[in-house]
Amino acid sequence: MTTAQPRLDAGQALARLREGNERFIQGRARFPTVQKEVLADLAKGQQPFATILGCSDSRVPPELVFDASFGELFVIRVAGNVLGPSILGTLQYAGAHLHTPLFVVLGHEGCGAVEAAIGSCFHGARHQSRIEVLLEGIVPAIEGLDCTLPADRLLRKAVEANVRHTVLSLRQTPEAQAREHEGVMKLVGAVYELQTGRVRFLDDEA
After folding, report:
1. Which residue ranges form the domains of the chain, and what is each CATH number?
2. pTM over 0.85
3. What contacts 88, CB < 8 A, 6 or more positions away?
């Protein structure tokens, strides 16, 4: 066993996430336990093949959703998968020092943060001060939606719009533009379906 693993490109990394999610859905996950030898090897360093910016929701753990083992994913979780200075700094670290070829913004159905942002944006709902700051990162993504839609449909559209907004914001950073231009990074958005366990990659629908 060696610490150095073959470096994946963005396409291979995305295929690996898709395959892992398929195993997860079918109940064939490969990593129910981790051997001590694996942990000892990982203590020497990390080489994740993908960086995931996901929501803090307890129902959406990326390592389980993608059937990934220790050391395979660099995961950042924050309510509503929103950006902020510390999140951007962590993402920059993943690109500059870990060189992950794939970055995924992972939203999920029924997101409470997005639902709260809908309340703020369209119904004048008020929240505690620091929650309001969090929601400020979501409102710009959803304010152009049709607020007369049925609540469940509006929430689904808002979740997707929030993911796309975050992807666009990241794509506009100098670092992302440079790495995508060099062909060494891919940035995609995705939505996790709570009832089925399936991850729907938004690029598939473009």
Report:
1. 10-201 (3.40.1050.10)
2. yes
3. 173
